[in-house]
Amino acid sequence: MKKSILVLSLVIMVVGVSFAGITLNASEVDSVLFMVEEEKLARDVYLTLYDKWGLITFSNIARSEQRHVDAVKYIIEKYGLEDPTIDEIGVFKNEELQALYTQLVETGSKSLVDAIKIGLLIEELDIKDLKERIEATDNGDIITVFNLLMDGSENHFRAFYSLLQRFSTEDYTPQYITIEEMQEILSGTNERGGMGHRPF
């Protein structure tokens, strides 16, 4: 937990440094505003599935997702963007994310194993979207924060994969990343927080 707080504090210090004349282009603005809602999507789904199934990992990772949201909000604040997040669970400005939330919760409410698979799906989607947006920018703030978020998402993926092995004999086939990318993530170690329960 202390490591997570330290990492977030470092992000605040780095992103909080202002440099005159630095602005975000339209694509970068879209990326930041989309990712803050996608991170909130993950948090909201996990909170809802925790209420449904009582599995503590959902609650722990939801807290981590809140730190992800906060980290992106520092970029929003620094560059004077309008924060699109709505302070209500399951409510989003982005219509695609609104529909996705409903779909994910519906599927994850069918069984505990389905809920764990939804966790895996969310994290691989997050990894894909973060990677694409990192590659599309040269802005240091975005690269720094999104790389940290991607480390956290890989931790979450490993945590959910371990749960799937615990509660089911089924294997998992990724939808948004390749099998090779999944194996690379699973062969890695938790970057922050230990055991995937309280990563950044």
Structural write-up:
- This protein has 200 residues and is mainly alpha-helical.
- It has one domain (25-186): Ferritin, core subunit, four-helix bundle (Ferritin), CATH 1.20.1260.
- It contains seven helices and no strands.
- It has helices spanning 2-15, 26-53, 56-78, 95-108, 112-135, 140-167, 179-186.
- The radius of gyration is 16 Å and the shape is globular.
- Fraction of residues in helices? 55-70%
Number of domains: 1
From the helix content, strand content and strand pairing, which structural class follows? mainly alpha
Strand content: under 5%
Report a brief summary of the structure.
The chain is mostly helical. Helices cover 70% and strands 0% of the residues.
Question: How would the blueprint of this fold be written?
Answer:
Blueprint: H1 2-15, H2 26-53, H3 56-78, H4 95-108, H5 112-135, H6 140-167, H7 179-186
Helix pairs in contact: 1-3, 2-3, 2-4, 2-5, 3-6, 4-5, 5-6
Please describe the structure with a list of short key phrases separated by commas or semicolons.
200 residues; mainly alpha; Ferritin; 7 helices; 70% helix; disordered C terminus
